[in-house]
Structures are given as C-alpha cells and as structure tokens.
Amino acid sequence: IDQASLALSRSNQAGAALLLQQALSSARDVAQVEAIAEKLSGLGQPVDLKKHFGFLTEWKVIGPFDNSGNRGFETVFPPEAKIDLATELDGKKGKVRWQDYVAAHKYGMVDMNQPCGKLKEVTAYATTDFFSDQARSVELRLGGKNSWKVWLNGKLLFGRDEYHTDTEIDQYPMPAQLQPGRNTILVKVCQNEEVADWTGEWEFQLRITDALGTPIV
Questions:
Q1: CB 64 within 8 A of CB 119
Q2: Contact 1, 7 (CB under 8 A)
Q3: pLDDT of res. 195
C-alpha cells in the first residue's frame, strides 16, 4: 500500500493499481480492504466487495411468522424441522411460501423487509446451499443487529437473542465443518416490537471463511 502511494506521488497510476491489486489479494482486515478498494475505484478499477468478501447472496426466504412478546426466538417453526421449498406454511397473517432473494447490498445484507414486508414482532427464515469439493473446517461469519440463529446441515451452530445492537462484518464467527458436496444453511432472524425509525433494520450478512478470514467460495 505504501509502495502504491509512492507510485501515485510519481504519477504512475498503472503501477499503483497493480500494487493495490496485489495488496487487495492478501488483505483480510475490513478497514484495510475498504481503503484499498476506495483507492482502486479512484483509479478506475472498482472492486466488487460482495465477491471479494465472499458474502452469500442467493437465498430462499420465508415469512413472516410470529414473534409477539419476543417468543419467536425459542419457538420451533416448521422450517427448523424440515426445509421443503415447495411447501406452503401458516404464517403470522396467512399462508407463506419460500421466495427467491438475491442480496444487492455491497456487503451482502439480506434484508427481510424486502420479501416479507416492513413488519414488527415477526420471524423469518433464509436458506441456501453451499457446495464444497471436500470436507473441511471453516467459519460461518455473521453480521447483524437482530435476534438470530444459524444451522448448518440441521445442526444448530449458534444463536443470539438481542436486538438493535451495533453491527459489523464478521461480528459473530462460528466454527463449523463442511461435508463434501451439498451443505444446507438455515438462518432465523427475528424482529421485535420497537417502532422507532432506527429499529427498522431486519437483516443479516453471512460468509464462509477459513480461520484467517479468507473467503471460501
């Protein structure tokens, strides 16, 4: 990065861009990646941050289910027992079905408000399949400010029942084991009763990495 700055001071933009790309390929710190990406963008080489960080962006989403009195976190709704993408389930206000959702946010945020509606006291689920060419130890890294649980291949990895906290990339790393072939991820996200504007977020981001934060795709 310092060498790139020196190249820029000498009006060597091509050399600076090459050095920044080399730095980006090895960077793992979020703030450092963002700083490098900003410099590259200024040189006409925008960085796809979703791809660089390896955020999972293609999901199936179903909801809303009930979360009155914040009871949704412990309530076992049907997706926790069986994921059947063709099924129709009883939701909070009627029948609900799985919907396709593709995260457009530059940091891969899955916004439950979009497919389910901007609601309160509700629960929803998102699922996706991740294919691995081998068995391997990984980390599922989640960021989000709502109450949530994560399962991998039917095994509960972790959950956190709190709302409207600060959020950041890789906020909650969860050690896990991928199996060869298909691996199914299920995320449960709850929204509580608070109605202030700043409590409207009902979202999460998730990626799979090695222990150093290198994305596994």
A1: yes
A2: no
A3: 87
Instruction: Name the residue among 112, 78, 73, 71 with its Cα closest to residue 95.
Output: 78
Q: Which amino acid is at 113?
A: N
Burial of 206 (C-beta count, 10 Å sphere; 0-12/13-18/19+): buried
Interior angle at CA 77, CA 116 and CA 203, nearest 5: 35
Angle among Cα 15, 106, 148 to the nearest 5 degrees reads: 135
Structure tokens at 157: 């990895």
Across 109-113, average pLDDT: 97
Q: Express each pLDDT in 8-31 by its tens digit.
A: 999 999 999 999 999 999 999 999
Average pLDDT over residues 119-144: 97
**What does the chain come to in residues?**
217
pLDDT tens, 73-94? 999 999 999 999 999 999 998 9
Q: Is 165 helix (H, G, I), strand (E, B) or coil?
A: coil
Alpha carbons 169 and 194: distance in angstroms, whole number: 24
Alpha carbon distances (Å) from 77 to 27, 71, 81, 120: 40, 11, 7, 17
Q: Name the nearest CA neighbour of 78 among 129, 36, 123.
A: 123
pTM, whole model, 2 decimals? 0.93
Q: Is pLDDT above 90 for 198?
A: no
Give the C-alpha separation, 29 to 18, whole Å.
Answer: 19
Residue 187, helix vs strand vs coil: strand
